[in-house]
Write a structure and sequence with these properties.
With 597 residues, the chain is mainly α. Helix content is 51%, strand content 7%. It contains 25 helices and eight strands. The chain has helices at residues 2-17, 24-43, 60-74, 80-97, 104-111, 129-158, 163-166, 171-179, 185-191, 201-204, 221-232, 236-249, 255-259, 311-328, 362-367, 386-400, 404-408, 414-420, 425-447, 464-467, 474-481, 527-543, 546-566, 571-580, 589-596, and strands spanning 266-268, 272-279, 284-291, 337-342, 347-352, 451-453, 491-492, 520-523. The strands form three sheets. Strands 1-2-3 form a three-stranded antiparallel beta sheet. A three-stranded mixed beta sheet has the order 6-8-7, with no helix packed on it. It is flat, with a radius of gyration of 40 Å. The relative contact order is 0.06. Mean pLDDT is 82; it is low at 211-216 and 298-306.
């Protein structure tokens, strides 16, 4: 009875909404929930036959929650569970809204959302650069093969005549009939021998190879019709190659925008091609100009073909490949017009390539391709054409660099780009490299320390063999000797080449940062000053919170410790000198007030 009640509502909602496919989610919800109740009710000691929408003998609210939980276990990574539960609640809510008898608690439950959210789809990753190159090369080779095959077929077509006058056992005549729409299964079964082995050799040669070892079946008239069509017209497998190359060359075009292009949307200009593209999801129509790229000066086997490989050239080649189909068949002016055997007409027919038919999807095209060595293409799963667009976005990001707003371009909001494109592997690798470069720069700056000139080297500092290893030239040595480069705590090789500023002006952080500067030069005569600085830092350790002291003085204290370790035997004399001469540390007022407060 419960299944019947839900099925009645299923019929009503299908008729009310005019759902052409019968509403598979509604039907699936009725069947699966009824089957679930057959197993769920006995666990409570109840009879499933007592389940009713208007009765509370069996608590259907608890049953819907239990069913949803079971569906989530059956479909952990799919939205199907959520769709089925929503469909069931919609059927119950419709019955309650129409005045049918429904338990009050079940009516309230039908108006509430599902208990669980649908799982989020895992974003698609882009193809690797090697995969992109393999797909590009395979697509180019496919285009060349298609153009060669069509050229041969159209040459034979020019030599053909009406088979009703010249006979049906001539290949050019059969092509003439295919062009005229006269080739059907019924006609060929009447005009050709019943077995393909009795057909003329020139006709048998165009049939597909039969390599599965089955000796009881051989290509028949249907295979012949398809082969005749492929000699004159491009089919979906041929058009895959054009679509791949166009998507790789048009970073601002989605697969659906490209697929929906029609002949009136294409306008060739002197400098390229102008496309009118419509994005249904964004309810936006825009015109994009793709400039014509210059052809390579030297034509080699890799670039050989009937035209260039830019967007302008590919569109011209695609239109040339499908031109005969537009003349032979009456159809809408789709850019991707594919001709193949149609079961309804039992002959050739033309329609917009869907790229979704059995054995004609993107994954089937990849499986049929070989690289230059004759090996199958090693392309990562899933074989989704949307990954091509992400690949072109990544290539654009690598070439342009810049901020996320720059990479998003004019066809995305920044958040859309961040959520759908910036997550890719290549983007993460580039971000990781940028972070590593920044960290490397910071670590290099952090590990730079002053040069300590020991007591034995000081008298000989003006000698080149002593000064050069210390990174000093004669002018710097003279300035240091004269006291011109004394920064208060240490000497400085060049105050105008500070690592803390890049404008070429005099260093503005001396002496506060001298112990962390690569330009600092320390003489043993300056050890008393460094000891007084160390004492000041230790007083600040007691006055400041530990995090603040570590941020302000921690690195300086570590640098001083390294210097003191190198000249530990000189420290007692330097300490006594501070006491005897009553020295005091002169720090800038800004350093005291800014760092010590």
């Amino acid at each position: 009875m419960l299944a019947a009640q839900l099925a009645d509502e299923w019929v009503k909602i299908i008729r009310a909404l005019a759902i052409a496919d019968g509403g598979p989610n509604y039907g699936g919800a009725v069947r699966k929930f009824a089957a679930f109740m057959d197993e769920y009710a006995p666990t409570l000691g109840l009879d499933p036959a007592d389940a009713r929408l208007e009765s509370d003998v069996i608590d259907l609210v608890a049953a819907t929650y239990a069913w949803e939980d079971a569906l989530r276990r059956d479909f952990p990574h799919s939205k199907h569970a959520k769709n089925l539960v929503r469909a069931l609640l919609a059927l119950i809510d419709q019955r309650a809204s129409a005045g049918g008898t429904v338990c009050e608690n079940l009516r309230i439950r039908a108006q509430a959302p599902t208990a669980f959210r649908a799982p989020r789809d895992k974003p698609l990753d882009e193809f690797t650069n090697a995969e992109r190159i393999d797909l590009r090369d395979a697509a180019r080779e496919q285009v060349r093969v298609t153009e060669t095959r069509l050229a041969r077929g159209r040459n034979l077509l020019a030599a053909g005549e009406d088979p009703r006058n010249g006979g049906w056992r001539s290949l050019p005549n059969l092509l003439w009939a295919a062009r005229a729409g006269m080739v059907t299964s019924k006609v060929l079964q009447k005009e050709l021998p019943s077995k393909s082995k009795w057909w003329p050799s020139e006709i048998r040669e165009i049939l597909p190879d039969w390599t599965d070892g089955d000796t009881t079946r051989r290509p028949g008239v249907r295979s012949l019709i398809r082969s005749l069509g492929r000699m004159l017209f491009a089919d979906e497998m041929d058009l895959h190659a054009f679509r791949i190359l166009l998507l790789l060359g048009m970073s601002d075009t989605t697969p659906e925008e490209l697929h929906d292009l029609q002949i009136p949307d294409i306008e060739f200009t002197d400098g390229g091609v102008r496309l009118i593209q419509q994005k249904n999801r964004a309810t936006r129509i825009r015109a994009d100009l793709h400039p014509e790229q210059p052809a390579p000066q030297q034509q080699d086997s890799y670039f050989a073909g009937a035209g260039t490989w830019d967007v302008h050239g590919l569109l011209r080649r695609l239109l040339a490949a499908t031109a005969l189909a537009r003349d032979a068949f009456t159809s809408e002016p789709w850019l991707f017009l594919a001709v193949d055997y149609r079961q309804a007409a039992r002959g050739l027919g033309a329609e917009c390539a869907g790229f979704t038919h059995d054995q004609r999807r993107f994954t089937h095209w990849i499986a049929a391709q070989r690289d230059s060595g004759g090996n199958l293409l090693a392309i990562s799963q899933p074989h989704d054409v949307r990954r091509l667009r992400k690949t072109t976005k990544v290539v654009r990001a690598v070439v342009l660099g810049g901020s996320v707003s720059d990479l998003a371009g004019d066809d995305h909001h920044v958040e859309i780009y961040r959520g759908h494109y910036a997550h890719g592997t290549t983007a993460h690798v580039l971000a990781g490299r940028a972070i590593n470069r920044s960290q490397q720069w910071v670590f290099q700056r952090a590990t730079q320390k002053p040069v300590l000139v020991d007591a034995a080297a000081e008298p000989r500092l003006e000698e080149p063999e002593v000064a050069e290893p210390l990174g000093l030239d004669s002018s710097q040595v003279k300035a240091i000797r004269a006291g011109e480069l004394d920064m208060g705590i240490t000497h400085c090789r060049n105050p105008y080449d500070s690592p803390h500023r890049s404008d070429g002006r005099v260093c503005h952080v001396a002496p506060a940062m001298c112990m962390l500067c690569r330009n600092a030069v320390i003489f043993t005569s300056q050890l008393p000053r460094l000891l007084m600085l160390s004492d000041h830092i230790e007083r600040m350790r007691a006055a400041l919170p530990p995090p603040q002291w570590q941020a302000v003085w921690g690195r300086q204290a570590a640098a001083l410790k390294e210097v003191f370790t190198e000249c530990a035997d000189l420290l007692p004399a330097a300490r006594q000198q501070v006491v005897d001469l009553r020295l005091r540390l002169d720090l800038p007022l800004g350093q005291r007030t800014e760092f010590d407060r």
